[in-house]
């Protein structure tokens, strides 16, 4: 059983916050932000997570603005951003650096999409800190997760990292939907059953 699950919401450049959230043995034990990719990578090396769920495309489309798995999301009214946007290309470049680190430490990793994950769980995108706090408690309860973190000042990046971590946990217990094609695979959590598209 995988116990050490890390959710990451990486930024596209240094100076902007990258969120992280750690679930260990059914409990949320750490949540926070890093301002540089080097600090995030150092944390990963120290932590040695077993599974990492990343809020970023993990490869480029072969042509056009979308991969085939992105088009599957769009077909189901889950709308990812076009991957040919400058900010998205920077994000993918940094995500690929993170993957190199994960492969170096033999960690498994999955791609996820917090906005889509929230929709799958029946939530809209939170518009305020108050909503982020409420969603945090409701979503962790949906998955019977304990928590020792203080969610009273949860930032957007921390919240997205939390959703990534929950998706990673859902993946380990079979409560997920897979949007897969030959070029990519996106994992989203579901409340009850495992299903693949």
Describe this structure in words.
The chain is an alpha/beta fold. Helix content is 39%, strand content 22%. It has one domain: Ribonuclease H-like superfamily/Ribonuclease H (Nucleotidyltransferase, domain 5, 2-Layer Sandwich). The chain has helices at residues 37-47, 68-75, 86-104, 114-120, 129-142, 156-172, and strands at residues 4-9, 18-24, 27-34, 51-54, 108-111, 146-147, 176-180, 185-189, 195-196. Strands 5-4-1-2-3-6 form a 6-stranded mixed sheet. Strand 2 (18-24) and strand 3 (27-34) form a beta hairpin. Helix 1 (37-47) packs parallel to helix 3. The chain is globular and about 45 Å long. 36% of the residues are buried. The model has no long low-confidence stretch (mean pLDDT 94).
């Amino acid at each position: 059983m995988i116990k050490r699950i890390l959710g990451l919401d990486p930024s596209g450049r240094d100076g902007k916050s990258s969120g992280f959230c750690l679930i260990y043995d059914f409990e949320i034990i750490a949540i926070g932000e890093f301002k540089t990719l080097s600090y995030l990578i150092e944390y990963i090396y120290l932590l040695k997570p077993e599974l990492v769920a990343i809020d970023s495309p993990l490869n480029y489309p072969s042509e056009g603005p979308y991969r085939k798995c992105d088009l599957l999301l769009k077909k189901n009214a889950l709308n990812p951003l076009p991957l040919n946007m400058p900010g998205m290309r920077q994000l993918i470049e940094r995500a690929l650096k993170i993957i190199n680190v994960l492969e170096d430490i033999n960690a498994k990793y999955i791609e996820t999409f917090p906005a889509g994950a929230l929709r799958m769980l029946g939530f809209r995108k939170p518009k305020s800190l108050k909503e982020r706090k409420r969603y945090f408690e409701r979503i962790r309860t949906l998955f019977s997760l304990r928590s020792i973190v203080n969610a009273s000042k949860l930032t957007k990046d921390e919240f997205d990292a939390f959703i990534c971590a929950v998706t990673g946990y859902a993946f380990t217990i079979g409560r997920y939907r897979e949007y897969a094609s030959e070029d990519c695979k996106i994992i989203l959590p579901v409340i009850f059953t495992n299903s693949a598209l």
